[in-house]
Amino acid sequence: MLSAFMPQPLHELKPKDKARIESLLAYGDRLLVGLSTGALRVYRVNEQQVPVDQDASNGETVPVTPSKSKAVELLREEDKFGKKPVQQLAIVKEANLLVSLSDGYVSLHDLQTYQLVERLEQTRSAICFAVTSNVIKDPETNIPGLVSRLAVGVKRKILLWTWQDMELSENVEEIALEAAVKSLTWLMGKKVVVGMDAGFSIVDIETKEIVPVNKPASRATAVEEAQGELAGVRFAAVSSSGMGYMGMGSWVPKPLATRLSDHEILLAKDVNTMFTDAEGNALEKRQIPWSLAPEAVGYSYPYLLGLQPPERGQLQVRNPETLTLLQTISVPQAMLLHVPQPNISLAHAGKGFLVASDRVIWRMNAMPYPAQIDQLIEKARFDEAVSLLGLLEDTLIDDKAGRIREVQILKAINLFEQQKYRPALDLFSDAQAPPERVIALYPRAVAGDLSSRERKETGLRESESAADDKNGKPEGSSKDAPKEPPSTPQKSVLGRLVGSHKRAGSDGPTPKTPAKQDSDNASIKTATPSKSGTAEKETALEGEDLKQATRALCSFLAQARVQIQKYLSTAGELKEQPPVMDSETGKPVFGHLLPQSLFTSDTSKVDWQAELLRVAQLVDTTLFRAYMLALPSLAGPLFRLDNFCEPEVVQASLYESHRYGDLIDFLHGKKLHRQALELLTKFGRGEEAIDPPEGMRGPERTVSYLKQLPPEMIELVLEFVRWPIEDSPDTGLSVFLADSDNAEKLDREKVLHFLASISTSLQLRYLEHIVTELADPNPAYHQTLAELYLEYIKSGDTSERDQLAAKTKLEAFLTTSTKYNKARIFRLLPTDNPLLHESRAIVLSAMGNHKQALSIYVFQLSSPQKAEEYCNRIYLAQQAQVAESCLLDNVGAKSNHHPAALSAVDLEVSAESGENVFAMLLGLYLSAPDGEVKRWAEALELLSKHGARLPASSTLDLMPSDLAVKELASYFRGRIRHATSLLREDRIIASLEAVRKADAETVLRFGTEKDAGLGGRMKRVVIREEDHCPVCYKRFGASAVRVKPSGEVVHYGCISGKPGERTGRGLSGIGRAWG
């Protein structure tokens, strides 16, 4: 059990002394003892260390015989202090008074001389009293002052004396009660708990309000109903049916109460207890399992004390939260319990209290709190250790939060060893245990080299073999001996004692309140000692137990990953550099994830990023092993996400389990692309000894992987794309032709050089892709593409069909592209190859040599239709260019037309000023070069179709003198119609311009139709007297105004301001004028 207090015998009355100890009072180093003879003895307490014996049989702490040095020294003795036994002592320190109860009266004595100052005659037949001192603010002045109060229970009333700043008030207050007072306990400076036979009441001494303490409805049991204590009635009340005490000589248990805090108090009568708040409301707590009614109760921070009857001779120390019995101290015949004030809060921490029989006085010295917690941990009382840490103030324990966390981790380890894996791992998560510490509990299959289980088993085997050698056992005897079955975890200490009437070291259950199982005992694993003194070998973690434990570990590690991701980026760098440090512990905010050994030395040189990254690698690698062992289906999603798994571990595991697809995904996620591509190459070519999966045969899987690589890895792409291209050119070339950002951003120079080393046709296809589809403006690519087309057409190995296809592509490219070197391409085009005549014409056209181009169409290709189409295309392009130049030069500015509405006449005049391509064609028809005949039919057809596009002056000059005029009738008719059309079009445009101008003037003057004739310059606004300017917020009055197009009215001077923006006319201007 716990050794929270060490008993120290202070003083024992001499055998010849016939007096008995009746009361105690301790303050400072003074001890006042009231005797049955009415005498008062004053002792000085000397500090000394007293060893104690721990009774191993029942766990009781027994004081040893006092040493020769005196624990107390008698300073003085007042023989005539009282006429009868001194029943109670207290002090009012601020008034320098000693209060005593003797012979039914309360008396006041001088605290220095112990002489009687006054006997309070109103207290005749007093039963008890209580003293309290508090700092209370004056309700009128709100100034804090020290107020001490003395409450005396006299029959059925309470008498109150008050000292205000060391001065006794003349008014003695009196509060009547329903029954005789048996006990008084101050709860706060304004409330007192009164114990009576009729039950407990809480009295407010200022308002005189009396609140009875009732039992909650949920506390009613059949036994209580049989005793007359019905639910909802007074707690500890003696009813008319409760005649059980009459058979005991009319003995009624004394009501006891002790204050636990400002808002909690314990009430006790007989073996019944109830916890209430300051208002008398019952709290949800179970009863204290007392087998006998206590003689006295008290509270010594942070423990609840219960003094058993003298015949029992025990002092019980309990946790006030769990009510667990922590220590039993043997104090023979003890009947007095005195806890010096203050018995609550930090002021009492570490101080002891007094226990006395009629002859002996003991002082209970509090042990250091860290030592108490260590004892509880050593005995596997983890819940009690956590509860005790929660009760203690933060200043009493170094790193209280860290200590609580450590205790919870130890409890979780204990649960894990009992094979309670899920509760253990949940507790690890709640305690924020370092992942390294949790992982070490698992075997090598999960924890790898970090596993401590193998080390323990190895050490145990070595110790067993050493013991066998020491005992002289023959070699090999251990093999012949039958193997002991693995020990199964036992339930708990309490489970072994089922059927017994009493638990060791605690009270047995009463008939009224069954004992509740200790929560700590449920988490204690017992080990039966072997003959050699060592514990039995732990059950090996394997098989289904290992899978169950591993599944529980997966959830813990998943939570740890989420915590790590808050502080560590996917690139392995801290999100906040330097990390945020805790102001109290000096650790980073993620310190709970790191091994605690880091904080045992100087942390100024610790690389927090490297340490957290190491933990992240450990967590992810262990989680992968756990998934592969217990939940294989979840391993794939893990390494498809960003992770810190160790590549060697994952590769070996996935390869051995034939999960090649997952292995490729993992290598890709870890950016180990070379290893992944080497593996895919072996599978694709069939070089691996094992039978590869169906999806990895051939180049498709390799090509798909290469498409995912970023453009920066162009060298790796070119290295591993060769064999897919050689195996399947279309599939391999898709790496460069794919519609993706990666393919488009590849280094095109390197790709072209690579493809050229394999095949010219592949280079041509790639150039077509980047020039036609990606519209790459690089002139070198355009020039190379044109030259490759020419080489392909001129090569003798190409079929006629392919040559025609290449010719079509070349002509389309030469027509659309403007980036190639026209002069160089023209020189490369042979003059004797009929397939390239049209290409020469296209290049000449691009160079601006329209006449030479038309000559090729007319004489070499003999295609008047293509020549006409060529002229039509060039003419329309010239017309568009002329229109654009007219707009830029503002040709129409000389007229009253809108600049955008150029007349057809203007365009015609501008067009005739330049070269006319139709005139060139007509000249070729009528003035054929040597060796060619004139083409009259084609010329007349040209005049008939496009006569309007041919200028009259140059056209008539070309006509021979022997040509009849009637042959030109269609030409003249077309020219006249064209001129008339241009004139009429110009007139129509002028009329439309006039209409548009009239509409604009109307809108400007009268507004639109929706304005009903009140818009534009005819717009009217109404300004009322209360209207104000939205800019300066001043009324308009007789000021000049402006009306905005939106209809908003502002002052004339506020036209440049914005709504809500005050100008110099408004308040800001006034403010500036004022200074």
UniProtKB/TrEMBL annotation:
Pfam families: CNH (PF00780), Vps39_1 (PF10366), zf-Vps39_C (PF10367). Coiled coil: none annotated. Residues 451-483, 534-543 have a biased composition (Basic and acidic residues). The keyword Oxidoreductase does not apply. Gene3D superfamilies: YVTN repeat-like/Quinoprotein amine dehydrogenase. Its main location: membrane. Residues 450-543 are annotated as: Disordered. It is found in: Endomembrane system. Residues 18-344 form the CNH domain. GO terms for biological process: autophagy; endosomal vesicle fusion; intracellular protein transport. Residues 520-533 have a biased composition (Polar residues). Keywords: Membrane. It is a peripheral membrane protein. CHCR repeats lie at residues 739-903. GO terms for cellular component: endomembrane system; fungal-type vacuole membrane. Belongs to the VAM6/VPS39 family. PANTHER family: CNH DOMAIN CONTAINING, VAM6_VPS39-LIKE PROTEIN. This is CNH domain-containing protein. It comes from Cryoendolithus antarcticus. The lineage of its organism: Eukaryota, Fungi, Dikarya, Ascomycota, Pezizomycotina.
